[in-house]
Amino acid sequence: MYFEMFTQMRKQLAQLDLWLEKAAEFARGKSFDPDSFLGFRLAPDQFAFARQVQIACDTAKLAASRLSGKEAPAFPDTEQTLEQLRDRIGKVIVYLEGFTSADFDGAVTRSISQPRWEGKTMSGADYFLEHAVPNFFFHLSHAYAILRHNGVALGKRDYLGTLSLRPAPDHR
Amino acid sequence: MYFEMFTQMRKQLAQLDLWLEKAAEFARGKSFDPDSFLGFRLAPDQFAFARQVQIACDTAKLAASRLSGKEAPAFPDTEQTLEQLRDRIGKVIVYLEGFTSADFDGAVTRSISQPRWEGKTMSGADYFLEHAVPNFFFHLSHAYAILRHNGVALGKRDYLGTLSLRPAPDHR
Q1: Where on the phi/psi map is residue A50: left (φ > 0), alpha (ψ -120 to 50), or beta?
Q2: Does the distance separating the beta carbons of A130 and B8 come in below 8 Å?
């Protein structure tokens, strides 16, 4: 299910891109600078909007990289505008499009490490379920919450995107 | 991976329970009514805290039920206190503890429906990835964000809980 979940993350990043577009429209309609969104936050000691977007992007990118062993592009966290954030989201979507199901064949048993774990490791399966998926949705949802809190009209459909619904059975 | 993801949801619900305990402590320390948290929200037209908790609980519960075919207990959405919300979380944790991996053997191909889909269906696999997992983490993260926004001292460790880290290799 690794590949399928990364496909879903890619879909969610495309929705995130849409929220940024709606945020820019909202700002223009209210005559304020769209890029002021980058500094908005829900609590003084929580990450601001730009950082939430960066971490959502990095969590998806680094998880796909670590679980497949494929190198990930580096992004320098220097975005100053909504357009630059959208560009980053687009690059991560392109990166995720480069994977196939076979890339994650050995993911379950890979040994995953991060600098902050000081030499400790997690299995690929544990890392994916306990760390990557919860963190991705945490920062994605916080980006959404910051926009909603500041007046951008987003709804559950903007969050989930189009569902793969199958037509109702024909009862003629 | 269905069973493993529900195990992770169960872990996240136990973390949610911890946040409610910390919210109650915070309120007592500031001498305000802990149960006022139930009505707090991030935007006038977003769900309040109580509803975010109820939906996080229901999303996990209903997804496990729909993907396994096992009946789920009904909860009436009448909680008026943090303690009552914690009781509901506890009941969902107990419900999720009753599942085994085998319960989800046919989950991928199950036909899932909801009243609001007007007869349309989703495959179990699509429903899980496109709907259940994103919605669960959305409402969980919003519950977290509402508490953080209102001063409760939560951190990423409270969100993720204890990770299954393995000791660093011994290099003697």
Answers
A1: alpha
A2: yes
Can you tell me the distance from the alpha carbon of B69 to that of B143, in angstroms, rounded to the nearest whole number?
28
Residues of A with CB under 8 A from a CB of B: 1, 4-5, 7-8, 11-12, 42-43, 46, 117-123, 125-126, 129-131, 133-135, 137-138, 141-142, 144-145, 148-149, 151, 159-161, 163-169
Predicted pLDDT of residue A168: 83
3-class state of residue A111 by DSSP:
strand
CA distance A27 to A13: 21
| Of the candidates A75, A89, A79, A78, the residue with the CA atom closest to the CA atom of residue A19 | A89
pLDDT tens string B26-50:
999 999 999 999 999 999 999 999 9
ipTM: 0.97
Residue B94 in tokens:
């107990």
**What is the reported pTM?**
0.97
Mean pLDDT of A102-117: 95
